[in-house]
Amino acid sequence: MAGFVRELERRGGPALRLEQRAAGGVGCVVWDAALVLAKFLETGACPLARRHVLELGAGTGAVGIMAATLGANVTVTDLEELQELLMVNIENNKHLVTGSVRAKVLKWGEDVTEFQPPPDYILMADCIYYEESLEPLLKTLKDLTGPDTCVLCCYEQRTMGKNPEIERKYFELLQVDFELERIPLDQQDEEYRSADIHILSIHRKQANFPS
After folding, report:
1. What is the pLDDT of residues 38-51, one digit of tens each?
2. Burial (Cβ within 10 Å: 0-12, 13-18, ≥19) of residue 161
3. For residues 8 and 70, what is the distance between their CA atoms, to the nearest angstrom?
4. Strands, E, within 92-195: which ranges?
5. What's the rounded Cα separation, in Å, for the pair 166 and 173?
6. With CB atoms counted within 10 Å of each terminal CB, which end of the chain scores lower, N or C?
């Protein structure tokens, strides 16, 4: 499969170099929501140094690798078929990492014991697009989050086809167990932001934990 490299500028030094794949599924390119979330992490709004971070549906690994350059200890996760691409991008950017980063297989809805204890942050960029994946994704979020876990979810609002209905259902289901707060545009990176790309800060409702 032919690869092509996307550079992602960083404030603090050389750009990330991210291999993409010209063939294959949705995980093979750096989506705009991943760029927006990666650049939001650089603003310093969320302290990442020495924090335990997990990325779901990592694809190319752009967001998780950016977190690792900011001092976080990161596990980027996706399906088996994306592990090779994740490994390549970790290797290509390891000289920029000040925390740590590793790739692991995580299929939504399945056992997450090996990813415990709960991370400080869970990162998700453009993970809401298949109706059949909503419930497995929500199960994984519930299984992974502790009372102090912050989930940063970035998604591009899409108006085509079934997308609005899938989004509506996702947020309806999510709000059963989680509280959501939208991060205003003026708190995002000045260049990498867009009115139709939203970043949400998500926490478990405290009442849903045994006291």
Report:
1. 999 999 999 999 99
2. exposed
3. 14
4. 100-105, 121-125, 150-156, 178-182
5. 11
6. C
Instruction: Give me the amino acid identity at 103.
Output: A
Q: Tokens 């990161």, residue?
A: 74
Please report the pLDDT score of residue 207 as a whole number: 74
Find the helix packing angle between 62-69 and 83-93, rounded to 10°: 30
DSSP state of 148: T
Partnered with residue 201 across adjacent β-strands are: 152, 181
Q: What does the DSSP 8-state code read for residue 26?
A: G
Closest C-alpha among 71, 200, 44 to residue 125: 200
pTM: 0.93
- CA–CA distance, 161 with 159 (Å, rounded to integer): 7
Look at strands 178-182 and 197-204 and give their pairing.
antiparallel
